[in-house]
Amino acid sequence: MPQSPANQGGVATHCPYCAFQCGVQLSGARERVVVAGNEAFPVNKGRLCIKGWTAGSVLGHPERLLTPWIRNARGVLAPSTWDEALALVATRLRETQERYGRDAVGLFGSGALTNEKGYLLGKFARVALGTSNIDYNGRFCMSSAAAASNKAFGLDRGLPFPLEDIPSAEVVLLAGGNMAETMPPFMQYLEAQRAHGGQLIVVDPRRSPTAQAGSMHLRLIPGSDTALVNGLLHVLVRDGLVDREYIASRTEGFERVKALVAGYWPERVERITGVPEAQLIQAAHLLGKARTAMILTGRGPEQQARGVDNTLAYINLALALGKVGRPFSGYGCMTGQGNGQGGREHGQKADQLPGYRKIDDPAARRHLAAVWGIREEELPGPGLSAYELLASIGQERGIRALLVVGSNMVVSAPNAREIESRLRSLDFLAVADFFLSETAALADVVLPAAQWAEEEGTMTNLEGRVILRRRAFEPPPGVRTDIEILCALAERLGKGSHFQFNEPRQVFDELRRASAGGPADYAGVTYERIAASGGLFWPCPSEDHPGTPRLFSEQFATPNGRARFHPVQHQPASETPDSDYPLYLTTGRVLAQYQSGTQTRRVPELERLAPRAIAQMHPAAARRYGLVDGDEVTLSTRRGSARFTVDLTQLIREDTVFVPFHWGGEQAVNRLTNPALDPISRMPEFKLCAVRVHASGML
Ligand code: SF4
Q1: CA-closest residue to ligand 1 atom 7
Q2: Dist. CA 695–CA 689, nearest whole Å
Q3: CATH 3.10.100.10, applies to 583-697
Q4: Where do the 4Fe-4S Mo/W bis-MGD-type domain residues begin and end (predicted)?
């Protein structure tokens, strides 16, 4: 039995929140646990943000779920035993499948789950339930960048180089990422890059704290990324600043891109993007003349209905500069969720099997069927993506029963009021979580799950570094781990022989075999090897392999080893301002809250800093509506309305309103966002839609 950190003299583990996965040192009892930065962990080097410093308070929080709950005949959630709750979940899932078919049951996972849990959830869907309908909230996070990297490089690993390369990059272009608030300890890498004389170009409609830390800010109109990047490439081609030798020897398809960007001359790009011609040329020259340069994207360009095209445009730029696979250079996606990287590798996505294999690849299916001890034909095919899965509820042949593990879609899904009403119409909803989130509050059965410091498991950070979360405490009495929950449900579904796992390490050993030979190969990663190092980078195919911090230095993961250019035209967003809805609405994050806020809204220090959702507006725009700082305002889009507190700032464009998405109910900005999906990644268009402002909070 693990002792408390106090007894052990401290436990080295990792923060429960973002993809930076800061190393932390825990000490003290659960109710008064002290979180300190772990200076020995090479990523954060002892630094934390306020979310990490205060993460201990969710462990002993008085609102934790400590017993299962079942909705009774009066429609009220009431305490139950584990036996009753698990039996009811298994019975209702089985009955739903018997009546409506296997795919009538859906599973919804999370990029917060450890690799072991994400892997087991995918196996549970395919082996215990035989449903094809499993997807996860990471679809709403970095799926566009993942799809674009796979198209261009044949492989997606958020950063295909280690963070330690960043300070040596002469120029970094960061598009649509606000790391100064989302992962502040990351800023030490950009600060070091600036201190070495480097240039930081930030692309963002807002002059965010990150943009303020840059040497140049390209304040583009929301939804105009592809035009901006095609314009940069136009200037590079025009002025002879592309790397012809690299393009000839390591890529294919440049000529079509070159022909396309000829139509993006700077004056035209200024009209589309709002970025002055002179700034565009200056940025292109900075990039084109640098010996080392990095292009990084965040959710800004990615969370759009053209998110894959946007990301491909940025990748085209990195390739034309000849920088991908070169030291201190390249293209990377700044993954957001804690295990956003590992969560997309091991099978909780609708189109994918463990090891980052494609579910429709016959060799992958053969391999997984053998590892799982089932016949190949028993393995379901691709299912519905996250939003489509939720939107199918209530439709003919749609989802009738849903098991959710660690996700709060009532706050985080686009068009959230519609999603909430669909969830209410389910025949059966079960949610495993550790607080009664807005989604758990709708459930027929709530299963109390263990938290971050209460179970062991691996996470994969934004660099592809596999790290180990250690257990500091036993889960409280009455609480079970997600692995225990899934194994117990599999037993009740008659598939227990495939789920004989007593601890996460056994799941990880099977994951290693399942991933072996795949693009994300973890075969050589062991808990012991991680513990003895600062983590191991995949691919790591054998126990004597050192791991792979840098990808693509010799060749790309495409059949012919060359990276692929993709010509991408600028296209207007699926909804743009008009006379009815005259402004852009864009969404994002603030320093003191994390994702749907299920945890951070319960931390007093964070709640004091960010107690409610604000609507950030330019003073000139606010004046037109008679609004002053601190006023209540109602924002409406074609999906609905929500209320916010006005926060005036010169740092945003006059035509744009920014609202963070961490709150539910009347403050849920995702009640307003547009569910238009990217045709490839199925990413919703969170980052922009057209909005109307109602002064005085009145409709
Ligand atoms: Fe580090 Fe992210 Fe946790 Fe902040 S939220 S302490 S940046 S892992």
Answers
A1: 183
A2: 19
A3: no
A4: 8-61
ipTM of the complex: 1.00
> Rounded to the nearest whole angstrom, what is the distance from the C-alpha of residue 48 to the centroid of ligand 1?
6
Residue ranges lining ligand 1, Cβ < 6 Å: 15, 17-18, 20-22, 44, 48-49, 51-52, 183-185
Could you identify the atom of ligand 1 that is nearest to the CA of residue 184?
A: 7
Cβ atoms of residues 573 and 223 within 8 Å: yes
CA atoms within 13 A on the CB side of 604: 4
Quote the CA–CA distance of 575 and 395 in Å, as a whole number: 25
SS3 per residue for 527-592: HHHHHCCCCEECCCCCCCCCCCCCCCCCCCCCCCCCEECCCCCCCCCCCCCCCCCCEEEEEECCCC
Q: How many helices (H) and strands (E) are present in the chain, helices listed first?
A: 25, 30
Helix, strand, coil percentages, rounded to 5, for the chain: 35, 20, 45
Alpha carbon of 39 to ligand 1 centroid (Å) = 14
Please identify, by atom number, the ligand 1 atom nearest to the C-alpha of residue 185: 7
- Start and end residues for every CATH 2.20.25.90 domain found in the chain: 5-58
* Chain-centroid distance, C-alpha 490: 28
The DSSP output letter for 206 is B
Nearest atom in ligand 1 to 338's CA: 8
- How far out from the chain centre does Cα 688 lie? 18
pLDDT along the chain (699 residues), means of 10: 49 96 94 93 97 95 97 97 98 98 98 97 98 95 93 97 97 97 97 97 97 97 97 98 98 98 98 98 98 97 96 98 97 93 93 96 97 97 96 96 97 96 98 97 98 96 97 96 98 98 97 97 98 95 97 97 98 95 96 93 96 96 96 96 96 96 94 96 95 74
Cα–Cα distance for residue pair 247/244, rounded to 1 Å = 5
Other CB atoms within a 10 A radius of the CB of residue 344 amount to 27
Give the Cα separation of 337 and 110 in Å (integer).
Answer: 9
Of the candidates 657, 140, 660, 641, the residue with the CA atom closest to the CA atom of residue 414: 140
Q: Is 496:490 a contact under the CB 8 Å cutoff?
A: yes
Q: What CATH class is the domain 5-58?
A: mainly beta
CA quadruple 360, 365, 367, 368: dihedral positive or negative? positive
22 CA from centroid of ligand 1 (Å): 6
Give me ligand 1 centre to Cα 24, in Å.
10
What does the DSSP 8-state code read for residue 652?
A: B
Helix 277-289 × helix 225-238 angle, to 10°: 60
Where in the chain are all domains bearing CATH 2.40.40.20? 583-697
Do the beta carbons of residue 145 and residue 299 sit within 8 Å? no
Q: Locate 464 and state its tokens.
A: 């592809």
Domain with CATH 3.40.228.10 in the chain: 147-333
- Residue pair 660/550 in contact (Cβ under 8 Å)? The answer is no
Residue 50's alpha-carbon distances to 17, 181, 592, 608, 627, in angstroms, are: 11, 10, 7, 12, 31
**Start-end ranges of CATH 3.40.50.740 in the chain?**
69-140+339-507
Could you please state the CATH topology (level 3) that the domain comprising 69-140+339-507 is classified under: Rossmann fold (3.40.50)
53 CA: nearest ligand 1 atom: 6
CATH architecture of 147-333: 3-Layer(aba) Sandwich (3.40)
